Amino acid sequence: MKVEAHSSTGVRVELTAGRHQLVADEPIGTGDDAGPDPYALLLSALGACQAMTVRMYAERKGWPLEAVNVSLDTHKVHARDCEDCESDPDARVDIIEVDIAFDGPLSDEQLARLVEISERCPVHRTLTGEVKIRTNRIS
């Protein structure tokens, strides 16, 4: 999927993703708050992917999943303050906190499996895998 971002004034960015139009912006003070900021868009992508992945899995298994609710937040910590971080202790680490809840008459085993499946969504795998971003200047 190709996404295009266009900015001609301020920090507001017009986004085109396929046939969909979106706006990204920064809060009042830096921007006009015309849309979510880039981190909110990133978290939205992860939350949407986890919910979709869990829903498809449960439907394929015939499990009685009625709804998936994903809440995400992000913050930075020093690696030395992170229990499971292996970076340089002075490095800053981005932490994404995900709270996921499932509605429906599901067993404890099914609930545990759905959490595991949520962490296998493509966006989660991208964010936790090795990522290379190559920026090319075009004329």
**What CATH architecture label of the largest domain applies?**
2-Layer Sandwich
CATH class of the largest domain: Alpha Beta
Report the sheet-strand fraction. Answer: 25-35%
Largest sheet: 3 strands, antiparallel
How confident overall, as mean pLDDT?
A: 92
Question: Helix fraction?
Answer: 25-40%
Sheet with most strands: strand arrangement: 1-2-3
Q: What's the name of the CATH homologous superfamily of the largest domain?
A: K homology (KH) domain
Order of helices and strands: EEEHEEHH
In one word, what is the shape?
A: globular
Instruction: Write the CATH fold name of the largest domain.
Output: GMP Synthetase, Chain A, domain 3
The figure for the number of domains is 2
List the total number of helices: 3
Rg over alpha carbons: 18 Å
Tell me the span between the first and last alpha carbons: 22 Å
Number of strands: 5
Helix-strand category: alpha+beta
